[in-house]
Design goal:
alpha/beta; two-stranded antiparallel sheet; binds ligand FNR
């Protein structure tokens, strides 16, 4: 039997519960990272190297944690980042994640590499909205891996549009799949052991092929799934085809931020894919700081999002002080879904939301637009 969900009091507590629930294959898939895990660890560690300069005796009895994201009001300054094959986390997969998130008013980014079709996932969101009498401000966005076949890419974008996703987030850090060490070890063991029947403790891990031409579960790539030939020129037709809020997911350099601004996209997500792609990637915080130093104008020209290693409401606020519009959270939601289904997703959201609010109060701000870079001391990172 699982521990009662109330025993999870931080967003990281779901991990140990999930480890007991998940099959080895699913555990390896979610917890693995490129090479030695350097960048995954740096994502987490770097947030703890900066700290607040709290202010006291400011009226904080009325709190507002809402944030405008790409033209819509979000209940929270964080959202669930895209994760593939959530059927490997829980049999309820993406629709169950979405139900939990919608109940809490939380925005969710749906991966191209989902186990259910994008229409089924949207249906769960709409159904939950109906049950809540349309009181939930929650929105779904779609993360796009661009299929090599352009006609498939275009029809996928049209389906996303027709289904009613709010924004399109094109992943640009996946010209190939990163070398995920833990996946390789497991694969090598399985190859040596020969064919055997795999019993998945937590549902199927197959990518829905109707949805996507995207990387398969377990880090093996389906030929023709992700376009290694993708360039900035492709963003032109993607942008025309989509004709709505567009965000580039996986920007890691100041130069590329400049190019994104030139292109005129609405947003960028600074991300190293949770440390799963290039080995020795900068942590998401390092990228954010570089942009502050070398191209601060960016924050006035587009919305800057960040993901990677954010595990506490305080981390969320640190990113916002430094200019982020909102942040994405990945693995904690995979683990929460694996452990407790929709209830876990709700609980994880409550935990982060409460931490955001108590940290705001002790920082001396009552709304998120009062957050400023001066409220953060980054000297420990800069002196290194
Ligand atoms: C991911 N990520 C990801 N990104 C993407 O663009 N498309 C995808 O299908 C996936 N799939 C995926 C699966 C799993 C199991 C993980 C852990 C991550 C990356 C994800 O969107 C996000 O960038 C990171 O997860 C953020 O880091 P944290 O919060 O997990 O540290």
């Amino acid at each position: 039997t699982l521990p009662d969900p109330s025993l999870c009091v931080t967003a990281t507590d779901f991990e140990k519960v999930a480890k007991d629930v998940l099959s080895e294959k699913s555990w390896v898939y979610v917890s693995s990272s490129a090479a030695s895990g350097l960048s995954m660890k740096a994502n987490i560690d770097d947030w703890s190297l900066i700290n607040f300069r709290p202010r006291i005796l400011r009226s904080v009895d009325k709190m507002d944690t809402r944030k405008s994201i790409l033209g819509s009001t979000s209940q929270f300054p964080f959202f669930v980042s895209a994760m593939g094959t959530l059927g490997s986390s829980h049999p309820g997969a993406e629709p169950l994640l979405v139900r939990g998130a919608t109940r809490k008013g939380l925005n969710t980014m749906i991966s191209t590499a989902s186990t259910k079709t994008l229409e089924e996932i949207m249906d769960a969101h709409i159904d939950e909205q109906r049950l809540l009498k349309n009181q939930s401000p929650s929105k779904l966005s779609f993360q796009l891996y661009v299929p090599v076949d352009r006609s498939k890419a275009k029809s996928l974008i049209q389906r996303v549009k027709k289904a009613g996703f709010q924004s399109l987030w094109v992943t640009v850090d996946t010209s190939t799949l990163g070398k995920r060490t833990a996946d390789r070890y497991l694969q090598a063991q399985e190859n040596l052991a020969g064919p055997k029947e795999t019993v998945l403790k937590a549902g199927t891990g197959e990518v829905n092929s109707e949805n996507s031409y995207a990387p398969a579960f377990g880090g093996r790539q389906v030929p023709g799934s992700v376009d290694a030939g993708l360039t900035w020129e492709d963003l032109d037709w993607i942008s025309k085809e989509w004709n709505g809020p567009l965000v580039l997911k996986g920007i890691q350099s100041v130069e590329d931020v400049k190019m994104a601004v030139e292109l005129g996209v609405q947003g960028i997500l600074l991300s190293n894919h949770g440390g799963r792609q290039i080995h020795s990637a900068p942590s998401s915080l390092m990228t954010l700081l570089e942009i502050r130093t070398y191209y601060p104008e960016a924050f006035d020209k587009l919305e800057v999002f960040v993901d990677g290693g954010l595990r506490d409401g305080a981390d969320v606020l640190k990113a916002l002080c430094l200019g982020a519009t909102a942040v994405g959270v990945g693995r904690p939601y995979y683990y929460a879904l694996a452990a407790y289904g929709a209830e876990g997703v709700e609980r994880c959201t409550d935990i982060l939301a409460e931490e955001v609010e108590i940290t705001m109060k002790m920082l001396g701000v009552s709304s998120l637009d009062q957050l400023r870079p001066e409220m953060i001391n980054t000297s420990r990172l800069e002196n290194e």
